[in-house]
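Board notes (copied after class):
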Amino acid sequence: MDQSPLKYRRILLKLSGEALMGNEPYGIDRVTIARMVREIAEVSLMGLELAIVIGGGNIFRGVAGGAAGMDRATADYMGMLATVMNALALQDALRLGGVEARVQSALKIEQVVEPYIRPKALRYLEERKVVIFAAGTGNPFFTTDTAAALRAAEVGAQIVLKATKVDGVYDADPMTHPNAVRFDRISFDEAISRRLSVLDATAFALCRDQKLPIKVFSILKEGALKRVVLGEDEGTLVHV
């Protein structure tokens, strides 16, 4: 009988690039990424099979002014390259934390990272290596939320964990509405009817169609990731 305390065997963690900034205006805050790595390492060493999709907003934000008026596809490709930079930084930080990780990119940059190959990604996960998916879907006009939903479905993740600066899904923006109420659980249909922003519309529809639950939680709360994978009361579960 499986005595593992983990609620999930394989998950996909969606990290925004902004989460790496800490209190910096852009770029990567080493203290912030070190804290994230400690939490990722802890759950990985418990036997969790962990894939990560990371955004690029922390880097692209620094050049966004110069991208004003730029062709949308060109700007999206720049954003994809920013995610590759973040993935390499996360991989290196995980290495220093004693966790073996592999970066797979949807864009071919083979001198730097290996391309996304699904069978290889599955083998890495089975070997308990953390797999970091970079460059989104490899296509413009799609967000890293969509990449997270797509990769989660492809590798058979049991849940998508959306790590944000807010500790769940609320009935209103908690930043501007101090009396906003957080949901412990909410269905996909109710989230749609309430027009709640969980993931972007394409990613949300893909998760709903694949019956892939989403857990929204705060990456800023110490120990939150561990509590989520242990099935404790943390964040908001969006379910079928």
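Comment from the instructor: The radius of gyration is 17 Å. Residues 24 and 58 are 9 Å apart (CA to CA).
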